[in-house]
From TrEMBL, chain A:
Transmembrane annotation, as ranges: none
PROSITE patterns the UniProt entry points to: EAL, GGDEF
Source species taxonomy: Bacteria, Bacillati, Actinomycetota, Actinomycetes, Micromonosporales
Domain EAL: 327-581
InterPro entries associated with the record: Biofilm_reg_signaling, EAL_dom, EAL_sf, GGDEF_dom, Nucleotide_cyclase, Rev_trsase/Diguanyl_cyclase
Domain GGDEF: 186-318
UniProt-recorded name of the protein: GGDEF-domain containing protein
Taxonomic source organism: Micromonospora inaquosa
Automatic annotation (TrEMBL), chain B:
Name the UniProt record assigns to this protein: SAM-dependent methyltransferase
Family annotation (Gene3D superfamilies): Vaccinia Virus protein VP39
One Pfam family matching this protein: Methyltransf_19
Highest taxon of the lineage: Bacteria
Organism of this sequence: Micromonospora inaquosa
Length: 581, 269
């Protein structure tokens, strides 16, 4: 606090009383001594105003304003000031003036007026300043909120590993591209990209390296694809959205660029990694397209590229898709068709080349499809094998063949055995032995009249269980034949371990017997096979015999039996049986 | 969309703020209707509330004045509230204009207001932080820029610790601050206390405080003295704030009515 020149160095009694009166009315940012010194100066002003002619109101105003400026700024502060001046000023200072009461009233009025004006201004200023602060704080909070929402939105729509847009954002953009008004005539495309054998990287080098590789690939794709949206859908799946294409050529060029970007060797944490990708391309008109169908098509197309060996693109083909859908529908219908009895068996004769007798028949399954007519096994067995339905279907074939074959012995003559194909999955199933045993018991078919045909590939696996099962079955007396011998790996080692009774030689060797030059080689192979088989105590049946000439040469080689159109086409059991009676 | 926890609060002036209530007790008009209503309710329950605030503010003034005279030129005022009258930088810079002051408050309006008051003052600034995050305060770039922690600093924790519950471990918060300070630094601390009161009085007081939006965590003289762990308490130790080096003997009368206790400690060399 500055002290005006001429102020008394020691505050008088009045100033001290005044200071005491206003203490505690509001916070005063000064020492008691500073307060007293200030009030001492104001006391002098008041005294002089009271005595000076003419009476000057402005002195009172000034004192009121100075009090407020010194933070003696409250209703109580004013009240006590008025009280102490009224009661003590004249007395304590021993002032003598004319009409002092009248002047005192006017002075107090002036002090109160000056004080109230200053307090009002101060209050308004403070209110304004706190409101401004609140507004600014609110603006800042809102800005921070918007920033955090933007950040949150970014997090929700981007993949943290690669920083690429994620499935959510991709789906939004694709949907928007398809639904944008007036775009119906334009074309849209996606490249669905998946790294080939990425799992091997994770499994051998660890997920950390795998993640780094994904980030590298992501960055390359983002750069290579320019303005087109590149998103990571998850795992090693990426997708490129082309919102406007001129046709499939555009998309193919883009896919080539993407494949090249992935193909470049990547240096990841000291490992030089060479990886390739497969891409499914779908390109179509915006009108009539929807995101779900489009992505499903892209997914199927990607699988075509994968199953063709990877490191390539495939273009969506509606007809191929249709065929696959039909195949899928067909396989899905197998269980119901079994229940409705839509399957039946035809049998093809296996004829002795020695005496022309019927030694056996091969059971061949047929599907009397209510819409598609009679279907041959090649149109549904492959599917059934892929989906695992072969176990159910194969089980039915085996049971039906046993049931029918048992009836053939009623004729009295030496009845033929029935040969049934077993799929890989059936042989590898734990319950095979019990299943066959139960069937033989239920139908009463003698075990030696059942032949199970397995392919070479069935024995490719090193599992011991199937071999043991086949051995148990062979010990029961069931015949075991190797089907299509000579077309697989023809690994002779298993002939040593397996209880095989017969080799069925693939039709392609027999077909060769027609032409002379190639025929001679095939004939030599066949002759060797026969002599090998006989040396191992196995019989040999030739498949696909179509002419009398072929039959004659097979007989000359020493082949035991034959099967093919020359000896009889597949037919229902009663027609085959009628022939032998 | 669920909002993540780092999303900021919005500003709601309908909610009373302890910083603006304090301004009201000091006789200021930097407050809104909700603050005044809450402050008046508090005064109805605890008639001494304005006296408490004023006594505490006077303690702050005397403490800063003393430290400035003792040569301290850096101040970190945590829980500074609304800069009304008699702010740390006004007191300190009156003695030496080169004194540097950093205010810290959690209330965004108080911070915005402080920023306006401090505009143009290169030696003082304000940051929005919480006493309960001392690491964040110490690491704040503005704190780092203005204060040189290799030199003594006076850390002011004045009339704020009673908003920090024991669960927030006030002793650990202060230790974190202390460990960042150079020898010769000071801690100025004050807060509401129930020292010397009977169990009944204490229970009565706690009931009153629980009714307000910000319950107070009153602490005894012994508890407050323990918070100066590592500091050398200046005379007269932890006392009712009017008793801490009063300007005049009379101003220390009826000191316990001020409810606040406080003290100043020096970090030894």
């Amino acid at each position: 606090m500055t002290e005006s020149p001429g102020a008394t160095p020691h505050p008088g009694t009045f100033a001290r009383a005044w200071a005491k009166a206003v203490s505690g009315t509001s916070y005063l940012p000064m020492t008691q001594a500073q307060l007293e010194s200030l009030l001492d100066r104001l006391t002098a002003e008041l005294a002089s105003a009271l005595l000076t002619e003419p009476f000057d109101l402005r002195a009172g105003h000034r004192v009121g304003a100075e009090l407020v400026a010194a933070h003696i700024a409250s209703a109580e502060g004013l009240g006590r000031t008025v009280e102490v001046i009224q009661l003590r000023l004249v007395r304590d200072l021993g002032l003598v003036a004319e009409e002092v009461e009248d002047r005192m009233a006017r002075l107090l009025a002036a002090v109160a007026t000056g004080y109230a004006r200053a307090l009002r201004d101060r209050t308004l200023d403070e209110q304004e300043s706190i409101r401004r602060a609140a507004m600014r704080a609110r603006t800042q909070a809102e800005r921070a909120l918007r920033a955090s929402e933007a950040r949150f939105r970014h997090q929700a729509t981007h993949d943290p590993l690669t920083g690429l847009p994620n499935r959510t954002l991709f789906t939004e953009r694709l949907t928007a591209a398809l639904n944008e008004p007036g775009r119906g005539a334009q074309r849209v495309g996606v490249c669905f990209l998946d790294l080939d054998r990425f799992k091997v990287v994770n499994d051998t080098l660890g997920h950390q390296i795998g993640d780094l590789l994904l980030a590298t690939v992501a960055e390359r794709l983002r750069k290579a694809m320019g303005e087109h949206l590149v998103a990571r859908l998850g795992g090693d799946e990426f997708v490129i959205l082309v919102e406007q294409t001129a046709g499939t050529d555009d998309m193919v060029a883009l896919a080539e660029t993407a494949l090249a970007a992935v193909r470049t060797p990547a240096l990841v944490d000291g490992h030089e990694l060479q990886i390739s990708a497969s891409i499914g391309i779908v390109e179509r008109q915006v009108a009539g397209a929807n995101p779900t169908d489009l992505m499903r098509a892209a997914d199927s197309t990607l699988h075509w590229a994968k199953s063709a060996g990877g490191a390539r693109w495939a273009l969506y083909d509606a007809e191929r898709n249709q065929r696959e859908l039909a195949r899928y529908a067909l396989s899905a219908a197998i269980p119901a068709a079994l229940e409705r009895g839509e399957f039946y068996l035809d049998y093809q004769p296996l004829t002795s080349l020695r005496d022309g007798s019927l030694v056996g028949v091969e059971a061949l399954v047929r599907w009397r499809h209510p819409e598609l007519g009679v279907l041959r096994p090649d149109s549904f067995i492959g599917l059934a094998e892929e989906t695992g339905l072969i176990v159910q279907l194969g089980g039915w074939v085996l049971a039906e063949a046993c049931r029918e074959a048992e009836a053939w012995s009623a004729g009295g003559a030496a009845a033929p055995f029935v040969s049934v194909n077993l799929a890989v999955r059936q042989v590898h199933r734990p319950g095979l032995v019990q299943e066959v045993r139960a069937l033989l018991r239920q139908t009463g078919l003698p075990p030696e009249r059942l032949q199970l045909e397995i392919t070479e590939s069935t024995m490719m696996s090193t599992a011991e269980e199937p071999v043991r099962a086949l051995r148990v079955l062979a010990d029961l007396g069931v015949r075991i034949a190797i089907d299509d011998f000579g077309t697989g790996y023809s690994n002779l080692a298993y002939l040593r371990d397996l209880p095989v009774t017969e080799l069925k030689v693939a039709g392609e060797f027999v077909a060769g017997l027609r032409s002379s030059s190639v025929g001679r080689t095939d004939e030599r192979i066949l002759a060797s096979l026969v002599s090998l088989a006989h040396a191992l105590d196995l019989t040999v049946t030739a498949e696909g015999v179509e002419t009398a000439g072929q039959a004659e040469r097979l007989r000359a080689i020493g082949c035991d039996a034959a099967q093919g159109w020359h000896f009889g086409r597949p037919a229902p059991a009663d027609r085959i049986m009628a022939r032998i009676r | 969309m669920q909002r993540p926890d780092w999303a900021p609060d919005t500003i709601d002036i309908e909610r009373p703020s302890v910083a603006r209530m304090y301004d009201y007790y000091l006789g200021g008009s930097h407050n809104f209707a909700a603050d005044r209503a809450a402050a008046q309710a508090m005064v109805a329950a605890v008639p001494e509330a304005p006296l408490m605030a004023q006594a505490n503010r006077a303690f702050l003034r005397r403490a800063v004045h003393h430290l400035a005279e003792a040569g301290i030129r850096q101040f970190l005022d945590i829980g500074s509230g609304i800069p009304t009258v008699g702010n740390v930088h006004e007191i300190a810079q009156q003695l030496d204009p080169r004194s540097r002051v950093v205010y810290v408050d959690v209330d965004p309006v108080a911070v915005a207001h402080s920023r306006e008051i401090l505009a143009g003052n290169e030696q003082a600034t304000v940051v929005q932080e919480d006493l309960r995050h001392p690491e964040a305060i110490l690491a704040h770039p503005d704190v780092r820029e203005l204060l040189d922690l290799s030199q003594p600093v006076a850390v002011m924790v004045v009339a704020v610790l009673h908003f920090v519950s024991d669960d927030d471990r006030p002793a650990e918060l202060l230790r974190t601050l202390r460990d960042a300070l150079a020898p010769g630094s000071y801690l100025v601390l004050s807060q509401a206390s129930d020292d010397g009161r009977s169990e009944d009085e204490r229970a009565e007081a706690e009931r009153v405080y629980q009714r307000t939006d910000n319950p107070l965590w009153v602490r005894s003289r012994a508890e407050l003295t323990a918070l100066f762990d590592g500091f050398e308490l200046l005379d007269p130790g932890v006392v009712w704030v009017p008793q801490w080096r009063p300007d005049t003997p009379e101003s220390a009368e009826d000191a316990e009515r001020a409810v606040f206790m406080g003290g100043v400690g020096r970090l030894g060399d």
